[in-house]
Amino acid sequence: METREELTESLEDYLEAIYGIILRKNAVRVKEIATELKVRYPSVTSALKALEKRGLINYEPYGTITLTKTGHETAIQITEKHRLLKSFFSTVLGVDNETADETACRIEHVISREVYIRLVRFVKFMYLSHESTETWLRDFRRFVKTDTPEIVGPHCIEDYFDGTGFELEGEHHEAGNA
């Protein structure tokens, strides 16, 4: 049996969709997956066969699809990662829900476990260590509205952080050096 790490982004999306549909309707069929993911039935069938081969779902053509224990656990991990990322982008960064959801969907597939765990810990730390998280978030949103970064040219990121004490990793560029 293949492992969770060998799932493609597409298969993770199918697994996440199956899980979501099961939560809402208690059962899932090919048609519902195709509608949810906006794909054609043959694409769904191909993905279901791949997920079944990996031992993540139980699938019989024209029947309902169920998650195996491993499939259920994997789907929860994918879904939780998506939820945290979307929540961080919308709640902390103040990004609109649609953009937060789309961005979370992309990043959930490539974020390493280590970085994800650090983000989880950062969010918890941020909420537990500040006396007034609401004040902090309000101040951040005010800063975002008034700060107008021009991060478009060479070395502009260095210029943006100049005087803040934040050091960018990697090669340091001096003005005028190529």
Name a few traits of the molecule:
178 residues; mainly alpha; Arc Repressor Mutant, subunit A; Diphtheria Toxin Repressor, domain 2; two-stranded antiparallel sheet; 62% helix; elongated
Please provide a written account of the structure.
By secondary structure, the protein is mostly helical. Among the domains are: 4-74, Winged helix-like DNA-binding domain superfamily/Winged helix DNA-binding domain (Arc Repressor Mutant, subunit A); 80-131, Diphtheria Toxin Repressor, domain 2 (Orthogonal Bundle), CATH 1.10.60.10. Helices cover 62% and strands 2% of the residues. The protein contains 8 helices and 2 strands. Strands 1-2 form a two-stranded antiparallel sheet. A hairpin with a 7-residue loop joins strand 1 and strand 2 (66-67). Helix 1 packs across helix 2 (30-37) and helix 1 crosses helix 4. The protein starts with 8 loop residues before the first helix and ends in a 17-residue tail after the last helix. The model is unreliable at 1-5 (pLDDT under 50).
Quick rundown:
The protein is 62% helix and 2% strand. It has 178 residues and is an all-alpha fold. A two-stranded antiparallel ribbon has the order 1-2.
